[in-house]
Amino acid sequence: MTHGEIVKVAGPLVVAKDLTNPQMYELVRVGDAKLFGEIIELRGEMASIQVYEETSGVGPGEPVVQTGSLLTVELGPGLITSIYDGIQRPLDAIRAQYGDFIPRGVALPALPRDRKWHFVPCVKADDVVVEGDIIGSVQETRAVLHQIMVPKGLAGRIVSIAENDFTVEEPVAVLRAESGEEQPMTMIQRWPVRNGRPYTQRMAPDTPLVTGQRVIDALFPVAKGGTACVPGPFGSGKTVIQHQLAKWANADIIVYVGCGERGNEMTDVLQEFPQLKDPKTGEVLMNRTVLIANTSNMPVAAREASVFTGITIAEYFRDMGYSVALMADSTSRWAEAMREISGRLEEMPGEEGYPAYLASRVAAFYERAGRSLSLGSQPREGSLSVIGAVSPPGGDLSEPVVQATLRAVKVFWALDSRLAYARHFPAIDWLQSYSLYSNLLERFYDKELGDRWSQDIREVRALLQKEAELQELVRLVGVDALSVLDRLVLESAKSIREDFLQQGAFTEGDSYTSLRKQLRMLDVIMLWSHLAGKAASGGVPLGAVLAMPVRIEIARSKSIPETNLAAFDTLENSIKKGFEALSEMDTTAREEYHE
Ligand SMILES: Nc1ncnc2c1ncn2[C@@H]1O[C@H](COP(=O)(O)OP(=O)(O)OP(=O)(O)O)[C@@H](O)[C@H]1O
Ligand SMILES: [Mg+2]
After folding, report:
1. CB within 5 A of ion ligand 2: which residues?
2. Contact call for residues 138 and 148 (beta carbons, < 8 A)
3. Confidence bin at 261 (pLDDT 50/70/90)
4. How many CA atoms lie within 13 A of 331 on its CB side?
5. How, if at all, do strands 253-259 and 323-329 pair?
6. Is 233 helix (H, G, I), strand (E, B) or coil?
7. Which ligand is closest in space to the CA of residue 231?
8. 155 in helix, strand or coil?
9. Distance from the CA of 237 to the center of ligand 2, in angstroms?
10. What is the Cα–Cα distance from 355 to 362, expressed in whole angstroms?
């Protein structure tokens, strides 16, 4: 194996000379400790290497061994339920073998080599297969049927294939290429993490990733195959949102990349995430999840590897025809790592010390989201949705990482510290946030829910907008200066905020709301709003409208069970009856209100 020599060590960055034909992003093993690293700059004779493990004690003169390959991941049965570090080392297997601290240079395979999987073929001898074709499957967990796909570089006529128990390294089939050469095919394949996996065709994202989170689905929806970011200050609810999406979004597979900085952040992920229950199956959520965790004893460089490792695994499941959702919490830690490495490379700094390529690197990551048709003779439709949290210092949204992310994603859920402080959760600011998918998804909603949905949403947006304007006015001249109808706008908007947008992640029955129930909830709020406007215009005193007992029932409609949506019919009738009663109020009663 060819190797060079270390010239200089600066934290996570090592400079080496005398490498043989070094390639950008080639994986190397650094020093006597054989630390994992990746070549990130070639300048003259020198190669700069970002090292994914602690470099203390490593010094000039030690060898740098070239592997001749790029940083790759292993793909195959065994991914689901795994907890990996940034370079796909299995943390649970390592812990079992070495204890809590990962010794440096440890190289355990990502997929267990001894475990047997029951392989069931779906093609037979003499069939011709090409790259991307599914030749069989393995029931990896109860939740996930792992499709075994022909890897890149392999194609031909099946010579033999059989149902049996195999390890990932044992051939499940033999293929004869056109050249006549026979090649065994195993269930494991490898892919370089920085290159997106190929597909036949991209498709416009036109179905929503239904999250069951009302403010998201109704106001700022994300499409299957779409991108979203959740920037927010410390403690504003970024992680809770990511967990809620992992649990409830209609995705088949979850890839969760935890990129922590503070020591305890990652322990939280490692302890909390595996405890999460999958509400759909009642099993643990890990049964359809791959978790990538940057442990705090890993240096910053590994954070970059972790986002690319995560997205490559996610693409692999997308290619099987699944709806995959990747959550990255928080991408700011990755950006900070870029800044540190760039500083050490003495590159020309851009804004706030981040490298000039911050935006393009962030974009390259989000661009791998999408809805696509796979390779193969029977292409499958799959989608990969990517949702990244950003934690800007002080919650400042004008900061470079937020700005770079906003340029790359189509949905912006702005978390607001005042809302979080007031315990309005999810603390998504409805005035600042946006979704560029709203129009693309309208057809879906119209078909699925009828056109009331889009109409309700338009009215809700208008009311919230109007509320903000009126609040300005109230600050200047006081609430008494408002017209009765404007007062009602404030009341309707308040009802939208409290009775619809606020949603308790930890409240059973409220944690998830189906689109159908969301529609019914909006309908009753808007029904009250319309009838209240009519009543007030017809001379019913404002006080009487506001005092209607049915408003309490509207506020309680959150807790109407999904299985009893007919209760909304009853509620609508009570609203109508309530207003009928008001309109029959006699003049003396009306005057009493005015006094
Ligand atoms: N939807 C919600 N329902 C109820 N409580 C919530 C909700 N979202 C957030 N919270 C509350 O806010 C707290 C902080 O949320 P979270 O840990 O997600 O914030 P964060 O933005 O990830 O913080 P950090 O910056 O520390 O990573 C939670 O522990 C919880 O008490
Ligand atoms: Mg968090």
Report:
1. 238-239
2. yes
3. low
4. 34
5. parallel
6. coil
7. 1
8. coil
9. 7
10. 11
**What per-residue string of b and e applies to 23-51 under the rule 16 or more CB within 10 Å gives b?**
eebbbbbbbebbbbbbbbeeeeebbbbbb
The minimum-distance atom of ligand 1 relative to the CA of 420 is 12
The pairing of strands 411-412 and 227-231 is parallel
Round the average pLDDT of the chain to a whole number and report it. Answer: 93
Among the atoms of ligand 1, which is closest to the Cα of residue 234? 25
Q: Please tell me the distance between residue 264's alpha carbon and the centre of ligand 2 in angstroms.
A: 11
Whether the pLDDT of residue 271 is over 70: the answer is yes
Cα radius of gyration (the chain): 28
From the list 353, 345, 459, the residue with the least C-alpha distance to 10 is 345
For ligand 1, mutation pick of 331, 391, 425 (most atoms within 8 Å of CB): 425
CA distance 420 to 402: 19
For ligand 1, the distance from its centroid to the CA atom of residue 427, given in whole angstroms, is 9
Atom of ligand 1 nearest to the CA of 242: 18
Cα of 423 from ligand 1 centre, angstroms: 10
Interhelix angle for 484-496 vs 515-537, to 10°? 170
CB atoms within 10 A of CB 484: 15
DSSP 193-209: TTSPPP-SEEE---SB-
Q: Measured in whole angstroms, how far is the alpha carbon of residue 433 from the centre of its chain?
A: 17
Output the CA torsion sign for 442, 448, 449, 452.
positive
CA of residue 238 to ligand 2 center, whole Å? 5
Helix (H) and strand (E) counts for the chain? Answer: 17, 26
Give the chain's largest Cα–Cα span.
Answer: 99
pLDDT of residue 63: 96
Q: Give, rounded to a whole angstrom, the gap between the first and last alpha carbons of the chain.
A: 94
CB 18 within 8 A of CB 35: no
Atom of ligand 1 nearest to the CA of 265: 27
Ligand nearest to the CA of 232: 1
State the distance from the centre of ligand 2 to the C-alpha of 503, rounded, in angstroms.
Answer: 18
**Spatial distance between the Cα atoms of 388 and 402, rounded to a whole number of angstroms:** 10
DSSP state of 18: -
What pLDDT is attached to residue 145? Answer: 98
Residues lining ligand 1, Cβ inside 6 A: 232, 234-240, 391, 425-426, 504-506
Atom 30 in ligand 1: residue holding the nearest Cα: 237
CA 65 to chain centroid: 36
**Among 109-118, 124-133, 390-399, which is the least confidently predicted range?**
390-399
Q: How many residues does the chain have?
A: 595
Protein residue with least CA distance to atom 9, ligand 1? 237
Q: Are strands 164-166 and 117-121 parallel, antiparallel or unpaired?
A: antiparallel
Give the separation between CA 329 and CA 325, rounded to whole angstroms: 13
Digit-coded pLDDT (tens) for 519-564:
999 999 999 999 999 999 998 999 999 999 999 999 999 999 999 9
Atom number of ligand 1 nearest to Cα 330: 27
Q: How far, in Å, CA of 370 to CA of 358, rounded?
A: 21
Q: Which atom of ligand 1 is nearest to the CA of 415?
A: 21
Say if residues 489 and 479 touch (Cβ distance below 8 Å).
no
d(C-alpha 408, C-alpha 252), whole Å: 24
